[in-house]
Write a structure and sequence with these properties.
globular, 173 residues, mainly alpha
Length: 173
Protein backbone atom coordinates (compact mmCIF):
# COMPACT_ATOMS: atom_id res chain seq x y z
CA UNK A 1 0.00 0.00 0.00
CA UNK A 2 1.50 3.30 -1.09
CA UNK A 3 0.46 6.60 0.40
CA UNK A 4 0.46 10.16 -0.92
CA UNK A 5 4.07 11.12 -0.26
CA UNK A 6 5.37 7.88 -1.74
CA UNK A 7 3.37 8.56 -4.90
CA UNK A 8 4.56 12.18 -5.03
CA UNK A 9 8.23 11.45 -4.37
CA UNK A 10 8.27 8.56 -6.86
CA UNK A 11 6.78 10.60 -9.70
CA UNK A 12 9.06 13.51 -8.83
CA UNK A 13 12.07 11.18 -9.20
CA UNK A 14 10.68 9.97 -12.54
CA UNK A 15 10.26 13.58 -13.66
CA UNK A 16 13.84 14.39 -12.69
CA UNK A 17 15.04 11.29 -14.55
CA UNK A 18 13.06 12.40 -17.61
CA UNK A 19 14.69 15.86 -17.42
CA UNK A 20 18.16 14.35 -17.15
CA UNK A 21 17.73 11.80 -19.95
CA UNK A 22 15.86 14.07 -22.39
CA UNK A 23 17.88 17.17 -21.47
CA UNK A 24 14.57 19.08 -21.37
CA UNK A 25 13.14 21.04 -18.48
CA UNK A 26 9.64 20.27 -17.29
CA UNK A 27 7.63 23.49 -16.92
CA UNK A 28 5.91 24.50 -13.69
CA UNK A 29 2.42 23.68 -14.94
CA UNK A 30 3.54 20.33 -16.32
CA UNK A 31 5.12 19.55 -12.93
CA UNK A 32 1.78 20.36 -11.33
CA UNK A 33 -0.07 17.94 -13.62
CA UNK A 34 2.53 15.21 -13.13
CA UNK A 35 2.40 15.49 -9.33
CA UNK A 36 -1.38 15.94 -9.23
CA UNK A 37 -1.83 12.89 -11.45
CA UNK A 38 0.19 10.79 -9.03
CA UNK A 39 -2.37 11.30 -6.25
CA UNK A 40 -5.57 11.84 -8.27
CA UNK A 41 -6.58 8.14 -8.38
CA UNK A 42 -6.90 8.17 -4.59
CA UNK A 43 -9.51 10.95 -4.73
CA UNK A 44 -12.04 8.18 -4.36
CA UNK A 45 -11.01 8.02 -0.68
CA UNK A 46 -12.90 11.30 -0.25
CA UNK A 47 -16.11 9.56 -1.32
CA UNK A 48 -15.41 6.61 0.93
CA UNK A 49 -14.74 8.77 3.96
CA UNK A 50 -17.50 11.31 3.44
CA UNK A 51 -20.29 9.08 2.13
CA UNK A 52 -19.38 5.79 3.78
CA UNK A 53 -19.05 4.06 0.41
CA UNK A 54 -16.42 1.58 -0.78
CA UNK A 55 -15.31 2.99 -4.13
CA UNK A 56 -11.57 2.89 -3.47
CA UNK A 57 -9.63 1.13 -6.18
CA UNK A 58 -12.46 0.95 -8.64
CA UNK A 59 -13.06 3.41 -11.50
CA UNK A 60 -10.30 5.87 -10.50
CA UNK A 61 -7.68 3.13 -10.73
CA UNK A 62 -8.55 2.13 -14.30
CA UNK A 63 -7.18 2.93 -17.73
CA UNK A 64 -10.65 4.23 -18.58
CA UNK A 65 -10.26 6.90 -15.88
CA UNK A 66 -6.83 7.87 -17.26
CA UNK A 67 -8.27 8.22 -20.75
CA UNK A 68 -11.31 10.25 -19.71
CA UNK A 69 -9.45 12.62 -17.38
CA UNK A 70 -6.61 13.13 -19.86
CA UNK A 71 -9.06 13.84 -22.68
CA UNK A 72 -11.06 16.32 -20.57
CA UNK A 73 -7.82 18.06 -19.54
CA UNK A 74 -6.64 18.23 -23.15
CA UNK A 75 -9.95 19.58 -24.45
CA UNK A 76 -10.21 22.14 -21.62
CA UNK A 77 -6.79 23.65 -22.33
CA UNK A 78 -7.16 23.26 -26.10
CA UNK A 79 -10.31 25.41 -26.04
CA UNK A 80 -8.47 27.94 -23.86
CA UNK A 81 -5.95 28.13 -26.73
CA UNK A 82 -3.08 26.86 -24.56
CA UNK A 83 -0.33 25.40 -26.72
CA UNK A 84 0.67 23.11 -23.83
CA UNK A 85 -2.68 21.25 -23.79
CA UNK A 86 -1.09 18.04 -25.02
CA UNK A 87 1.77 18.29 -22.50
CA UNK A 88 -0.62 18.87 -19.61
CA UNK A 89 -2.75 15.86 -20.47
CA UNK A 90 0.28 13.63 -21.06
CA UNK A 91 1.92 14.60 -17.78
CA UNK A 92 -1.37 14.06 -15.94
CA UNK A 93 -1.68 10.59 -17.53
CA UNK A 94 1.95 9.78 -16.68
CA UNK A 95 1.33 10.71 -13.04
CA UNK A 96 -1.76 8.49 -12.87
CA UNK A 97 0.02 5.56 -14.50
CA UNK A 98 2.91 5.91 -12.04
CA UNK A 99 0.30 5.68 -9.28
CA UNK A 100 -0.96 2.41 -10.75
CA UNK A 101 2.57 1.00 -11.04
CA UNK A 102 3.22 1.64 -7.34
CA UNK A 103 -0.16 0.23 -6.32
CA UNK A 104 0.50 -2.85 -8.45
CA UNK A 105 3.84 -3.27 -6.68
CA UNK A 106 2.74 -2.92 -3.08
CA UNK A 107 -0.83 -4.25 -2.93
CA UNK A 108 -3.23 -6.82 -4.29
CA UNK A 109 -3.40 -4.82 -7.52
CA UNK A 110 -5.54 -2.40 -9.47
CA UNK A 111 -8.57 -2.88 -11.77
CA UNK A 112 -6.93 -1.61 -14.95
CA UNK A 113 -9.86 -2.87 -17.05
CA UNK A 114 -12.64 -1.69 -14.74
CA UNK A 115 -15.60 -2.51 -14.66
CA UNK A 116 -14.15 -5.97 -15.20
CA UNK A 117 -13.35 -7.40 -11.73
CA UNK A 118 -9.79 -8.51 -12.59
CA UNK A 119 -7.10 -6.85 -10.50
CA UNK A 120 -3.58 -6.68 -11.90
CA UNK A 121 -0.43 -6.71 -9.78
CA UNK A 122 3.18 -7.54 -10.65
CA UNK A 123 2.84 -11.00 -9.11
CA UNK A 124 -0.60 -12.10 -10.32
CA UNK A 125 -3.88 -11.33 -11.98
CA UNK A 126 -6.82 -12.11 -9.74
CA UNK A 127 -10.54 -11.73 -9.39
CA UNK A 128 -11.35 -9.36 -6.55
CA UNK A 129 -14.72 -9.83 -4.90
CA UNK A 130 -16.30 -6.41 -4.24
CA UNK A 131 -18.01 -7.97 -1.22
CA UNK A 132 -14.64 -8.38 0.52
CA UNK A 133 -14.51 -6.35 3.74
CA UNK A 134 -12.72 -3.06 3.32
CA UNK A 135 -9.54 -1.85 4.92
CA UNK A 136 -11.59 -0.19 7.66
CA UNK A 137 -13.05 -3.57 8.68
CA UNK A 138 -9.61 -5.19 9.06
CA UNK A 139 -8.28 -6.83 12.20
CA UNK A 140 -5.99 -4.89 14.55
CA UNK A 141 -2.72 -6.38 13.24
CA UNK A 142 -3.53 -5.28 9.67
CA UNK A 143 -4.49 -1.79 10.87
CA UNK A 144 -1.26 -1.59 12.89
CA UNK A 145 0.78 -2.50 9.81
CA UNK A 146 -1.07 0.13 7.76
CA UNK A 147 -0.32 2.71 10.46
CA UNK A 148 3.39 1.83 10.33
CA UNK A 149 3.34 2.25 6.54
CA UNK A 150 1.56 5.59 6.86
CA UNK A 151 4.18 6.82 9.35
CA UNK A 152 6.95 5.65 7.01
CA UNK A 153 5.25 7.54 4.19
CA UNK A 154 5.18 10.70 6.30
CA UNK A 155 8.90 10.23 6.99
CA UNK A 156 9.57 9.97 3.25
CA UNK A 157 7.56 13.14 2.66
CA UNK A 158 9.34 15.01 5.43
CA UNK A 159 12.75 13.94 4.07
CA UNK A 160 11.67 15.11 0.61
CA UNK A 161 10.64 18.53 1.92
CA UNK A 162 13.94 18.89 3.80
CA UNK A 163 15.83 17.89 0.66
CA UNK A 164 14.02 20.60 -1.32
CA UNK A 165 14.73 23.12 1.44
CA UNK A 166 18.41 22.13 1.50
CA UNK A 167 18.67 22.50 -2.30
CA UNK A 168 16.91 25.89 -1.98
CA UNK A 169 14.07 24.75 -4.27
CA UNK A 170 11.47 25.92 -1.77
CA UNK A 171 11.44 28.54 0.99
CA UNK A 172 9.30 29.22 4.00
CA UNK A 173 9.31 32.90 4.90
Amino acid sequence: MSFAFTHLVSVWLLGKLYEKVSKKTIGHYSWFFLLFGSILPDADFLLDWSLGTEFHRTFTHSLLFVGIVSLITYLFFYFLKRTEARHFSLFLAAGMISHFVLDMSFSYGVPLLWPHPLYFSWTKIQFFDPGTPSFLDAEASRLRLALIKAILDMAIGTAWIFYLLFKKRIEFS
